[in-house]
Amino acid sequence: MARYAEAPAEVDVLVVGAGQAGLSSAYHLARAGIGHVVLDHAPRPGGAWQFRWPSLTYGKVHGMHALPGMELTGADPARPSSEVIGAYFAAYEERFDLRVRRPVDVSAVRGDASGRLLVESSAGTWSARALINATGTWDRPFWPRHPGQELFRGRQLHTANYPGPEEFAGARVVVVGGGTSAVQHLLEISGAAAETTWVTRRPPVFRDGAFGEAEGREAVARVAERVRRGLPPRSVVSVTGLALTDAVRAGLDSGVLERLPMFDRITASGVAWDDGRRVDADVILWATGFRAAVDHLAPLRLREPGGGIRVEGTRAVRDERIHLVGYGPSASTIGANRAGGAAVREIRRLLARAPEPAAAGG
């Protein structure tokens, strides 16, 4: 529950979240000379990366792009990505004196009678003229519901709390999901588990060859079109396909990445299909992705009938004071960098167009 100060602390721009999107935005705000505060609910620097499983080493990371103004160099590819990127983000905050306040949980963002935004948090309330929301998705793992789910006697867990392959030694594991995380889990777990089964809603699409600039622009455009229509963003893999790496080829050749269609129900001992097929399991691992963590924006009524927040660039169509960085087409690390700069340019114009009212009696 938020603790209210006698009067909200005033700031021009509040940034919520200090992952790639939030730090990029803070960097551009500082360069533009715009007063801002960065709030982050995580216990330490690193964004969502600090919560990744230890076996996800930096060498396995797919497409980590450097933050603006400071390259990530000399990283050991065998070191856990949580450590490498956590240390990089910490050094970045220090170099650019970003002074992130953490851990702070933001519970609600509301408008007030003066046209400012009231941001309620575990550390008090801020009054801001604009807000950059950079909260990502890690805090909202998506758990699909299936008939019989509550009957399963084994263990169910999500990518968000995946512990690494060692805990699956000797177990029969069903991995659900068609994205990169599911593939990584299967390739790791198969070396320790007694048996693995891969289940997806749609047949996976594997992408062979280079993924160049033109392909990247096309993928971003397809995601952006959904967001412009007010629909929830889709996963990157749904647009780009799964990269056909040497490890993936080996998994396909060995049968580890042989895929089954989605089961029809969960039983006490595993999963089952209406055609009579059954698979016994000790563990169901849901690699079913995440949803945007934007519940704190609910008081502003930004959602469209389709369930998403419609944005132009990074600006929420229903409220020009709100920018979503790392949402939809800017969800990649390079996209978040570019979007942070674009959001700050628009906010600068907004602040110039609507100068701060003079104080009473001034």
What does this structure look like?
- The chain has 362 residues and is of the alpha/beta class.
- The chain has helices at residues 20-32, 81-95, 180-189, 213-228, 237-240, 246-254, 333-353, and strands at residues 9-16, 36-39, 106-111, 117-121, 124-133, 155-158, 172-176, 195-200, 206-207, 242-243, 259-261, 265-266, 270-272, 278-280, 283-286, 311-312, 315-316, 319-324.
- The longest helix has 21 residues, at 333-353.
- The radius of gyration is 22 Å and the shape is globular.
The SSE string, one letter per element, is: EHEHEEEEEHEEHHEHEEEEEEEEH
Largest sheet: 8 strands, mixed
Tell how many strands the DSSP assignment holds.
Answer: 18
Distance between the termini: 36 Å
Structural class: alpha/beta
**What's the total helix number?**
7
**Shape category:** globular
Low-confidence stretches: 1-5, 358-362
As a whole number of angstroms, the C-alpha radius of gyration is 22 Å
| Percent of sequence in beta strands | 15-25%
Mean pLDDT: 89
Helix content: 10-25%
Name the features.
disordered C terminus; 362 residues; five-stranded parallel sheet; eight-stranded mixed sheet; 7 helices; disordered N terminus; 18 strands; alpha/beta
In short:
The chain has 362 residues and is an alpha/beta fold. The protein is built from seven helices and 18 strands.
